[in-house]
């Protein structure tokens, strides 16, 4: 009895499942196009609708074969409930483009476990293929013939005659070609033959890396436009999206190799300007004072990474501290403007004539097909020692001719004796005054604290303050004010320490690590003191020998 009841329940569940699966196996697959016959190079919207809730990958548009150019496929799901009766549908839409006229078989298409009925799509050659297209693509290049490495302006222009819901523009891709978007999109409005269009322009910098003939593919636009689904049987209007596709025309480019007689780094440009920026260089400068050289190279329609850095020969006694070059590019008047900015500091370490030579940059003009030179005039700068720190010049003592006239010795000896007695009395008075001063409290002379302040700056790692106090601290140790050039001559260790400190001052990465200044302080503190001359003064009145 119990077994019969269980068997009856199993038959009921099996019947219910059979009815459910039978409903799914009887799903309808409807495949349609928005136009038949269609025109060549016109977007054709293919719609696949199944009255089941299926996953998005249940339909694969690639089964249409290579007879069409396929665009993006979109999927949506609808659910309707009427009198407690639920109906679910899954809809795919994809864009087809036929480039040749003819009859094209569509289907049977497989959607999950279901198949559609086949039909034939007729494509005709249209007199004006883009007449009714909601989106049009126009692509162009500034020149069809260019040299190796020359930057061309590749422009894409979109004409949108419908309400655009979403879209994506795909730039052409080709081996051996560099294509980089420059600037922002330009969004405007134009009226063409009485119809308003939304116009979007995009610019690319196109560079070909190898010489030869190139077939450049067209730019392709894929997107969705909004269509009105107003129906006679409906009281309301619903806006739905429909996929669309448009593409431009392929282009042919010829790339020429660089001339064999061009000597130097290859730079091709419509125009190159080399100029100095910032403050002008002075006519004279002191030893140890930095000179700032700021150059700017501007190239029109040239790759910014292809601009070489000019070379300059300088004397060995000039220290050079360059910064990292800055490269920038922008679009102006539909031309690519590339700029290279070079900044460097020069520090002369000795007095003399510093000759900054002319700077030249060789480049190739594709319009004149000739090599040209961008030149920046040099300058001669006089390097002098610091004020008050010039080296002392020894005076040449000219011997005085001796008088040949005879003199009377007796008056002279009397005068010498009187003078000696006067000096003796003065010496006794000086001794008494000195003993009196020794008993009085001594007065402390003002103390020079440059060495202590220099020590504190070195201990704290304050490089700028330490360099400012260095000459004063050295003068306190040696008893003589000296320039940096003179201080270098004391020892190779001190010269090397000064070079390291100055290099760290003008280095672009000086903040990356701290510099230990205590070795520099030890070298300055141990400088030898100036030796005082032990030569005595000649007697004011030399005694003559008696005859």
Automatic annotation (TrEMBL):
Keywords: Signal. InterPro entries: BatD (IPR025738). Residues 1-27 form the signal peptide. This is Protein BatD. It comes from Paraferrimonas sedimenticola. The gene is batD.
């Amino acid at each position: 009895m119990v077994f019969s009841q269980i068997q009856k329940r199993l038959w009921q569940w099996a019947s219910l499942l059979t009815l459910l699966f039978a409903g799914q196996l009887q799903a309808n697959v409807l495949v349609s196009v928005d136009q038949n016959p269609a025109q060549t190079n016109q977007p054709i919207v293919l719609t696949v609708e199944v009255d089941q809730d299926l996953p998005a990958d249940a339909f694969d548009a690639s089964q249409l074969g290579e007879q069409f150019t396929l665009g993006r496929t979109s999927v949506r799901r609808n659910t309707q409930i009427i009198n407690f009766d639920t109906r679910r549908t899954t809809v795919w839409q994809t864009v087809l483009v036929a480039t040749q006229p003819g009859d094209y078989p569509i289907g049977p298409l497989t959607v999950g476990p279901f198949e559609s009925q086949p039909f034939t799509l007729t494509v005709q050659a249209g007199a004006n293929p883009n007449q009714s297209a909601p989106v049009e693509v126009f692509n162009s290049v500034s020149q069809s013939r260019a040299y190796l490495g020359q930057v061309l302006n590749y422009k894409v222009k979109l004409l949108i005659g419908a309400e655009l819901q979403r879209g994506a523009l795909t730039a052409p891709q080709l081996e051996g070609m560099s294509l980089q978007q420059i600037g922002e999109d330009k969004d405007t409005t134009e009226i063409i033959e009485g119809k308003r269009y939304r116009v979007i322009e995009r610019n690319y910098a196109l560079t070909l890396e190898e010489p030869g003939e190139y077939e450049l593919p067209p730019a392709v636009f894929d997107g969705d436009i909004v269509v009105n689904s107003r129906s006679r049987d409906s009281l309301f209007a619903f806006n739905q999206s429909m996929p669309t596709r448009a593409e431009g025309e392929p282009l042919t480019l010829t790339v020429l190799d660089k001339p064999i007689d061009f000597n130097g780094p290859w730079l091709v440009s419509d125009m190159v300007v080399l100029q100095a920026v910032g403050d002008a260089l002075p006519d004279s400068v002191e030893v140890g004072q930095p000179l700032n050289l700021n150059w700017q190279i501007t190239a029109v329609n040239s790759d910014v990474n292809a601009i070489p850095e000019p070379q300059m020969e300088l004397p060995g006694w000039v220290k050079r501290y360059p910064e990292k070059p800055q490269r920038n590019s922008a679009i102006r008047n539909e031309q690519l403007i590339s700029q290279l900015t070079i900044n460097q500091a020069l520090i002369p370490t000795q007095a003399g004539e510093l000759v900054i030579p002319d700077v030249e940059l060789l480049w190739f003009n594709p319009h004149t097909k000739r090599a040209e030179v961008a030149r920046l005039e040099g300058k001669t700068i006089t390097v002098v020692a610091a004020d008050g720190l010039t080296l002392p010049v020894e005076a040449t003592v000219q011997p005085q001719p001796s008088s040949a006239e005879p003199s009377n010795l007796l008056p002279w000896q009397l005068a010498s004796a009187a003078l000696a007695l006067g000096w003796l009395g003065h010496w006794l008075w000086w001794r008494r005054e000195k003993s009196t001063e020794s008993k009085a409290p001594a007065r402390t002379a003002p103390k020079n604290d440059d060495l202590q302040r220099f020590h504190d700056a070195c201990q704290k790692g304050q490089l700028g303050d330490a360099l400012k106090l260095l000459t004063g601290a050295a003068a306190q140790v040696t008893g003589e004010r000296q320039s940096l050039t003179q201080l270098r001559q004391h020892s190779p260790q001190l010269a090397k320490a000064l070079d390291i400190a100055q290099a760290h001052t003008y280095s672009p990465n000086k903040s990356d690590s701290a510099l230990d200044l205590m070795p520099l302080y030890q070298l300055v503190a141990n400088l030898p003191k100036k030796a005082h001359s032990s030569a005595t003064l000649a007697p004011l009145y030399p005694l003559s020998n008696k005859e």
